[in-house]
Amino acid sequence: MTFDNAQTRSLLDGKNRTYVPYVAPRDLVASAKAARTVSSLLRNERFDACISTGSAVAGLAVPLAALSGVPSFYVESVARFHGPSLTGRIMRFAPRVRTLTQAPTWASTNWPFEGTILDGWESTPYELPERARRVIVTLGTIRPYTFDRAVAAVLPALKPTDDVVWQLGITPTRPNLPGRVFADMEFETMSNEVKRADVVISHAGVGSVLLAHQWGKYPVLATRSSSHGEHVDDHQRELAGALTDRDLAVELDLDDPSRNADVLDRAAHRAVRAVQTERTTGS
Predict the structure, then answer these.
(1) Three-class secondary structure of residue 72 per DSSP
(2) Burial (Cβ within 10 Å: 0-12, 13-18, ≥19) of residue 131
(3) Which of 153, 170, 179, 281 is most buried when burial is the number of CB atoms within 10 A of its CB?
(4) Count of CB atoms within 10 A of residue 133's CB?
(5) What pLDDT is stored for residue 122 in this prediction?
């Protein structure tokens, strides 16, 4: 169950899926409407498990599944390094819902740690081909938060010869944006653009970061800030900090865009690759 947009339609084509109207962060009214869809599904279909990694849409859906007898698991987002999200705090007290964290720093009996998806990656030097540099900028699909600061920070760092693709979500476009500009992309299109890119500039969203890593890219992270009205809280700061500490990403400087030419150059000369760990090998 997810939201209906270009990425989810293409990614889930041919799959058994149910779409619900978009639920913005902490939108309890929209979450309650989505729960009605869940109730209908639970009455008419049989499920072996219910698994969620968060967002407001899970706030009522997961407890409903648990109360219906479906084994239910809430794995807190990898972006939460200082404690559970609001949805996670709700899940903690939901009957029959098992909660897990991906951050050992706040693990407990109620929030056991069984690993994180960040464990299976490392970065290495990369030799950039001698050709026009390919850059993709992706700001995600979250609403109602625009991210104009990211666009402003990227523009001075681009070279005149760069081949640039922008995926802006609801952030307004500008007449001077070089390259191709999209609001949304189908998943296959986005995946192909990330694959061919030399530099991936992304908001610090989990899905965008994982896609970059899967294609071996060392992303440049534009971190949304709640104080600038770019997100509901500062969990993207938590994720960006964890990724830079592990040398799996570098941050775009939103306050001093003059530094970002060097930031993009660093990202272009690093790559990310999967590595085996005790958890990934099962040992």
Answers:
(1) strand
(2) exposed
(3) 153
(4) 18
(5) 97
* Burial grade of 96 (CB within 10 A; 0-12, 13-18, 19 or more): middle
Burial class (CB in 10 A: 0-12, 13-18, 19+), 39: middle
3-state secondary structure of 9: helix
**The amino acid at 170:** I
Closest CA to 120 of 236, 279, 283, 242: 279
- Domain 121-274 sits in CATH at 3.40.50.2000
CA gap 88, 51 in Å, rounded:
13
What pLDDT score was predicted for residue 281? 46
Residue-wise pLDDT for 128-187, tens only, equals: 998 999 999 999 988 899 999 999 999 999 999 999 999 999 999 999 899 999 999 999
Q: What is the pLDDT of residue 2?
A: 85
Contact 153, 252 (CB under 8 A): yes
- Contact between residue 147 and residue 222 where contact means Cβ atoms under 8 Å apart: yes
Closest of 233, 242, 202, 196 to residue 216, by C-alpha? 196
Strand partners of residue 166: 137, 181
Residue 200 phi/psi, 5-degree rounding, is -110, 115
Question: Domain-by-domain residue ranges, the chain?
Answer: 2-115, 121-274
Q: What ranges in the chain are assigned the alpha helix state H?
A: 6-11, 28-44, 58-67, 86-92, 148-154, 187-196, 206-214, 235-245, 260-268, 278-281
Q: What pTM did the predictor assign? A: 0.85
Buried b (16+ CB within 10 A) or exposed e, 140-167: bbbeebbbebbbebbbebbeeebbbbbb
Residue of 108, 151, 138 whose CA lies nearest to 208? 138
C-alpha closest to that of 91 among 113, 71, 63:
63
- Report, as ranges of residue numbers, the positions in the chain whose pLDDT lies below 70: 278-283
